[in-house]
# Entry
Amino acid sequence: MNKENIIKLLILLSFLVLFLQGSRFRSEGKKVACSEGKCDKPHDHGQLNYHERFKVTPADNIGVATLKGFENFWEANATGMTFALIIGGAALSLMLSWKKFEQVLAFKGIKGAALGSIFGMPLNMCANCSAVTSLTITSKNGSSETTLGIILGGALLNIIGIVTMFGLFSPAVVISRLVFSAIMILVIVPWVSKMVLKNETVPLQSQVFDKISCYFPEKSFVQTIIKSFEDWLLAVGNMAYKLIPLMIIGTLVIAIFRAFFPNELLHQITSYNPYIIIIIVSFFGTLLSVPVLFEILLGTILYQLGFSTGAIAAVVFTVPSFGLFTLVLTREKLGGLKVPIILTAITFILGIGAGVLAEILTKFI
Amino acid sequence: MKKTIIGIILFLLQISLAIYFNKSIDLTVVISIAVVTFCLVIYNLSNNKYSAPGA
# Structure
């Protein structure tokens, strides 16, 4: 490993630590406190985040509700999505000059999916932000398995979220989430990745990347640091050009969905059969996209409304998992809409499975 | 390269927006590094440092 790669690795780790310490752990701490009912500003809770600049009211028409929802969603994800580009760019810059890292990201099958999920775990990001990171990291030669593994590892294997859920919900909910997360990552991801034909995948790489990978051993330590930051910014710029328009489209799709299906609809189904509720909640959860750990607050809302354990398990599995935003973002990498749509449908089905498993486990635990 | 420069400008706009929303120190640190590096990239670009060798 040459000094350029060591510096790039340190830049990557520094950005991750800066993100986790500077904003993510603090924000997660607030969300955990809110989920436990210890929030100091409960009146500020919106539908998507803990603060929403524009409150969507029933009086708003679809257009106004969509615009408000778009701004609220973009604001809720602003820090996460920005750091996704920053961290993703640093990892991509490292990958372009460190061939061994590139080889690891190209692993296929269960190995690729599992490794990807391990890379995704420390990101502490929702599926939306980890999708941006993942697509940036794997834009050159990364496999579909690693791309999806990072997205789902970041969203479903968040340690803080899992520990918080143990304190709030029945163990059946947590067991069900862990079991179905493992199925999603280790079984479904390798299976759907086989459907991604290599010639259908559009590589996101560009000629600018050729300027990043050249190593000059004669450069001094300071020159190498400057070159590493330059490489990082070029990688970020290249990916921002491709991903920011997709992020805008993804956010718009979510905002339109939210305008037609607000949270209030859930309040109207409390008296339905528990299994019908699980199906409805899974549908909602699959198409809904929320910032990291917000699925726990949604689960708490369902708990307070008197929903069964199964409905809570379905929501905490489907909401952070693959959804509309990730569908829009991964379309190019996965060779078209077919695989993302199949993954979204499987998320819905597994959400129902998670709900049913939690209902069954509740009888024994 | 033109697309990358547009991408960097988009990224700087996005990071500015995120700082406006959340006023976070971590992003302020990153934007400082990004702006200085962007000036360096523009300087190198104006000196044709990114042209292909022999072109």
Observations:
- The longest helix of chain A spans residues 221-260.
- The CA atoms of residues 318 and 347 of chain A lie 6 Å apart.
- The mean pLDDT of chain A is 82.
